[in-house]
């Protein structure tokens, strides 16, 4: 176990660094105290942010964007330290790639803040309203959630993206990023906090939590009454650990075991590009297809043709027996393949006897993210749309469209695969709650 | 420990009865299996209920209403057994009172189902929709949550109310009522299941879980993937136990430590009836006021007068020193009083120096249910409304209005005090999720 070196950082959060990354929780009570203390300061900051008018929030985000670009040399220097440490520690090239900041990436991050600044303010929107027969005036109004906790891996851009979305929706944010991005995240958060102070706003609206101890996450997700919601972003393991251990409400994001079902009545000329785009456009994102289901009535016409296209794109097929009879070079699928979110150029393939069998396969193995059917039969399309239970159900289009930007939300904090509160891409409105505001003039309720 | 007698009931759920009520969990693995099995059958039933058109659901609820009235003699006989057992076991009169069914109460329960049948179907409602620049047609549609678990105490009417609301919103329901109402609940559920079968619908859409073992609740609230949401209804202890131990998403209902703040600029003639109505109309419900906060600038005019009115209504005051200087017969408040949901004719009273102090008291002690201000000062009213974070914030009216029926929702399954998904009275729409439905014509997403 390494020796902890406590230090009060410029971020105002006492952090503990260890000589070795990932050492245990010997100091857990103290760590808990620091997390709860950060949460309490966030709560206080939230009382300032909740009522903040849109003009002030937009000014804040635009200033942050400018200052991040201006601080690019500092940010890149801090990031270089992370990249150096990660390389020394032997992190895979893919992870290093997501970690790296460049001048262009910093400009992109700043541009993201400007995009969010240009979006309408969700806070104060009146969702419903009426005057009751007794004269009471009733309005349901959007209000911020309050203190939003983010638990995420890898990419430092999440630090700024999440802060921008949270602040614009009147929330404050507690960030728990990856230890591999610690220097980058600190540098980014330092810029954001400087801007808050510059604009006479509480710097504690954006706080970075210690990232070297997993116990930080546990303390954050059990801070009931202090933290209003925790949003985990990352792999399936991180998300399910957070959701199962949390006593604070959570918003699940992003595990996508997505299917494309090619119906007997599919147009093969549409089906091939849809499958190709769903799988290979960006295999590492959650809306990528992981399993192809093909109706037996079209299998011999469709499978050999799509296999050629997929092979050219570098995709490995993991196929059932019926598929392998038509595509002999496919790898034999195991039971595990149907439940695997590859996030790579791999695709499970199965022939089904009917639409009903496809729906049941999706119900059993899907994660409720995005499910697509390709068909020219309107009854099959309606049936699939009605019976499949997922955040997005798609007819004759690629699964890759499930995305806040594509849906016209301007920006997203993640894609929810849960059923409560928000389902599908989550933008600014999904970071709010509501409040009933009731105006009377001495009204009392009669006995019933 | 009693000897378990297994029996297959007419409800299709294997229940275990014990010679002694409330004995332990020696059979816990078996119990878990039975709860999960019930949940699996509910999931299957849910696939039928999700797509059911409104006409079929309304026919179901109206038939259930008729059959319940017709079965009144059987229901009252079963209920008499519960009342007899409860009386022998020495249950308090208040609990016995809530347990008792009469012909009139059965007619009221049936009428509740007819009210729900008359409400619009939330399922299929299009919340948002647009055609994207690329021609993709996008709609966000309300869909059922799926399998709803209800955990509740005492009153047998909840068995039918919750079933009616769940079924109308396309869901199926797993009911876990109080053991003290076991015979009543079984008789009610038997009627509902008979009607389901009569109309060729799956009886497993309404299932009663074993009620004699607390482990049932634990198995229900951890059945992730089988149960979509659990709604606890009852005391604060039940609710927080469910919410903290659940891995299934929960909808918290009903703990209300509600405040009335009488501002310096209050109209005393309005303030007295508002306080009286908020406290004494029905002290046992969650929207009743538990604490009165009075601005020091109006205390000497207001407190002696309101104390007279409250005393006449039988209310005991638990007051701070400043209040007792003006109302000498008030009981001295302890720190606990500020956090107590009395649900009785008791009221905590405190004099505050400012609106700010009132807001901070509410933030510290409130449960986010309903908070009221009485004032003629428009700036004070706006300030209170903006700064107080609760499901309902009320100006110049009684806290007693926070109710689904009063808000025009027709019926409610409870009042949510959480911030995610639903806040305030929950009617049919709050028992739904959403689904994005995307129609294309061979659309693929360009590389970005």
Question: Which terms would index this structure?
Answer:
homodimer; 448 residues; alpha/beta; Aldehyde Dehydrogenase, Chain A, domain 1; Aldehyde Dehydrogenase, Chain A, domain 2; 2 domains; seven-stranded parallel sheet; 40% helix; disordered N terminus; Ald_DH_C (chains A, B); Glu-5-SA_DH (chains A, B)
Overview of the structural elements:
The structure is a homodimer of 448-residue chains. Chain A folds into 2 domains: 208 residues, Aldehyde Dehydrogenase, Chain A, domain 1 (3-Layer(aba) Sandwich); 144 residues, Aldehyde Dehydrogenase, Chain A, domain 2 (3-Layer(aba) Sandwich), CATH 3.40.309. In chain A, strands 12-11-13-10-9-14-15 form a 7-stranded parallel beta sheet, with helices on both faces. A 4-stranded parallel beta sheet of chain A has the order 7-6-5-8, with helices on both faces. A 3-stranded antiparallel beta sheet of chain A has the order 3-4-18, with no helix packed on it. In chain A, helix 10 links the parallel strand 9 and strand 10. Chain A is of the alpha/beta class. The longest helix of chain A is centred in the N-terminal third of the chain and has 22 residues. In chain A, helix 2 packs antiparallel against helix 5 and helix 5 packs parallel to helix 6. Chain A is built from 14 helices and 18 strands. The N terminus of chain A is likely disordered. At the A-B interface, strand 4, helix 10, helix 14, strand 15 and strand 18 of A face strand 4, helix 10, helix 14, strand 15 and strand 18 of B.
